[in-house]
């Protein structure tokens, strides 16, 4: 046995254990607003930080101990004060927008809640349905807002041929798998002459989206409860979008074929999917590959299987996505990288 390798692996596993623990603590720091409070503070005691955040000091003190020993916040042992370094703030505060990793770490607690279900699925081959992830929609909505508030109108829409001009003049756009509708509402506000339709299988998400549209006074946006595999419209839309909505479908081929059919003859499709290659060997050096494959095992692949599907998985990758799009009849498929959406690949495809 290679003792040096064994020792190094022990260090790796300790890092895994500590990383998992810190992921939960970072999620708490995000949800309680502790990171946001600390971003505006000089070195402070646990009591001062607790007061600023409006939280209980004893819990804040223990959380700070985890953050300090994990080197996420700096600790002055003599003064017994803590500070969030300016170099760290973008990655753990809401001000960081799409770069806020602490927000994404909420998924770790969410996934842990279904570990028993997934363990059982390893034995049976069954999936874990969406209903077992009651907070998933809210977390995705938060991440979507952080990403698309900054980039959707200025960076993403201009990548779609003729989109800015047509949407400004008046066009039709559908967002399939829209969730709570944040992206669609951003577009509806920016392009008041156009008509926007959001589709999602979740009645709760559709209700929330319609209520939000009413609150914003956007009568050019409406949302309907509909399975992505059963769009059932022909030549209806100038543009269709999906945001991280294909890889976890039970029947992705059917969804893409339905999107192709629903587009007008000169229509365009924006398909935003997690950035990955289709072969594991090509993802080995991707620093977030373990996270991507974990999300897939615990959620994306599993919910697809639960719906009777193939279990495509989060890391289905660029090559397979291009193939699926072509199989559905799309042409002129191009890929784009968006600076404010670094975890996704943006595919733009034409109906003809």
Give an overview in words:
This protein has helices at residues 3-32, 34-39, 46-53, 57-69, 86-92, 101-104, 106-112, 115-124, 136-156, 163-169, 182-190, 203-215, 252-262, 289-306, 317-327; strands spanning 74-76, 81-83, 172-176, 195-200, 221-225, 237-243, 263-274, 331-338, 341-350. The protein is globular. The chain is of the alpha/beta class. It has a 7-stranded mixed sheet, with helices on both faces. Strands 1-2 form a two-stranded antiparallel ribbon. The model has no long low-confidence stretch (mean pLDDT 96). It is 50% helix and 17% strand. α1 crosses α7 (106-112) and α3 packs across α4. It folds into 2 domains: 3-104, Arc Repressor Mutant, subunit A (Orthogonal Bundle); 128-350, Rossmann fold (3-Layer(aba) Sandwich), CATH 3.40.50.150.
């Amino acid at each position: 046995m290679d003792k040096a390798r064994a020792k190094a692996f022990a260090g790796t596993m300790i890092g895994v254990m500590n990383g998992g623990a810190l992921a939960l603590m970072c999620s708490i720091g995000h949800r309680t607003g502790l990171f946001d409070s600390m971003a505006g503070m000089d070195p402070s005691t646990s009591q001062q930080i607790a007061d600023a955040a409006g939280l209980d000091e004893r819990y804040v003190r223990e959380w700070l101990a985890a953050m300090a020993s994990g080197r996420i916040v700096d600790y002055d042992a003599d003064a017994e004060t803590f500070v969030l370094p300016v170099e760290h703030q973008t990655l753990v505060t809401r001000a960081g927008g799409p770069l806020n990793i602490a927000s994404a770490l909420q998924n770790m607690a969410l996934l842990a809640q279904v570990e028993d279900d997934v363990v059982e699925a390893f034995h049976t081959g069954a999936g874990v349905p969406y209903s077992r992830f009651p907070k998933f929609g809210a977390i995705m909505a938060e991440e979507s807002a952080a990403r698309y508030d900054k980039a959707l109108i200025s960076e993403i829409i201009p990548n779609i041929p003729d989109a800015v001009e047509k949407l400004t003049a008046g066009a039709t756009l559908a967002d399939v798998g829209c969730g709570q509708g944040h992206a669609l509402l951003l577009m509806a506000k920016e392009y008041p002459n156009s008509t926007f339709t959001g589709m999602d299988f979740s009645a709760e998400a559709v209700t929330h989206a319609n209520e939000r549209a009413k609150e914003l006074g956007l009568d050019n946006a409406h949302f309907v409860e509909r399975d992505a595999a059963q769009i059932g419209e022909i030549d209806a839309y100038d543009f269709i979008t999906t945001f991280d909505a294909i890889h976890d479908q039970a029947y992705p081929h059917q969804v893409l074929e339905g999107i192709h059919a629903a587009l007008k003859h000169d229509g365009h499709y924006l398909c935003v999917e997690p950035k990955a290659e289709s072969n594991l060997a090509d993802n080995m050096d991707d620093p977030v590959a373990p996270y991507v494959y974990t999300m897939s095992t615990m959620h994306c692949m599993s919910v697809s299987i639960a719906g009777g599907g193939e279990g495509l998985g989060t890391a289905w990758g660029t090559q397979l996505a291009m193939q699926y799009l072509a199989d559905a009849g799309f042409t002129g498929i191009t890929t784009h990288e968006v600076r404010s959406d670094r975890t996704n690949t943006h595919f733009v495809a034409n109906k003809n």
